[in-house]
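dude i think i finally got it to work??
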Amino acid sequence: MTQPLSPDTPEPEQIPADPSANPSVETPTESAAHPSPLAQGGETTVQDPTNSVSGDTEPIVMPPYHEMPIYQPATFFITTAARDSSNSRRFRALAYELVRRGHDVVLIIDELGKGHTPDAGAPPITQYVWKKPQPNNLRDMLYLRELILKHEPDCVMGSFSATNTMIVVGTLMGVRRRIAWHRTLSTQQELDQKLPLWRIRVNNIRKRLFFGMSSAVLTISQAGKADLRTVFDVPEPKIHIFYNGLDDPFEREEVREAAANRAAGRIVCVGRFHRSKGQDVLIRALALLKQGEDAPDFHAVFVGDGIFRQYCEDLVAELGLQDRVRFEGAVRSPDALRWMATGEISVVPSLHEALGNVNIESMAVGTPLITSAVDGMLDIVRDGETGILVPPGDADALANALRDLLRDPDKRRALGEAGRAHYLEHFELSKQVGIQADWLEAFVARKRKA
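look at this
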């Protein structure tokens, strides 16, 4: 529960996390976060996935383990949601890794965390709960001020609705390092929210101010970096790209079983129903796919919910696809991965997307992927190798790609295997967490003598 800060206040809740005890919270192992060549005192080369589509990667040569810098313990404030989602698991995994390295971490979560059941057997993490679900108000700012006075953090990291509060209060309280995450493109927000032009401009001015108060702004793709540069005027040296990591879904037996028994002709589309996600484009492509005497046998499953769902359901009825399309609704993150694993094809038809977690998730479960050639998707997918890229909003191109892939089991197999390998090499959670933890330690820059 929320911790009042009075002289009689009990110590905040200590949250350990053991992935074996609770599969919804998974953490990297120490050996996974630090590749074995380092532990052996050798030299290792890590490929940066920034240009993964073209394959033009630049090797980053890490020094031998005994030459790695040793940092003084620091205190980090990290905000995240408590609900089971890929984003919350990533932030918790990062927190656990920092604790394993000897640092202190304070997690500040939303009200959904009030019912969180602590796991057993992992590093303890101090946890507080915001006063309100959207912590962008004066009450939460004052609450954060008290927490900063109590714990004296060296670094605060804000994401989603807590970003502004973390950056403003951190600045006013003199916290040395203030990090803001930028995860949603401005084009996405404009398309989904349909705000008047004046409101968009006001919001962009506010964001510029908050980004200007930040010591660093982190984003998840080259598209996110371009958005920060062109829309919010963030200086390039302040921007850093860290890709989303995903814990291996094949560690769950039900996902492995689903992948081993894929439903013939099943096309799966997972995501929130918003206009920027492009589910209507896929529905129109399915109508085209159904035409002709030689049309392949298929059925589609849409997993997710949102304000755009009713429009898509009406469109399915209008195009006469009721016998080919199923709307599953919102499901838990592990169930969404299982649905992806049941499909012969996964489609991500987004019109705009900062990165597109579903692309990574599809590759992780070995499901052949068709996705839009736009924004952050270009950072993830190598066209024709780890997936198929089609122009965003082009139902004809999408229908053709679906038709070709449904008729070619060998190509589906090759794409699925290559996608899975690409995920393991670049986007497996422990690897990304290790990269981010390394950077955070250097960013706080408090070295001590070995």
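Residues 167 and 178 are 6 Å apart (CA to CA).
im so relieved honestly
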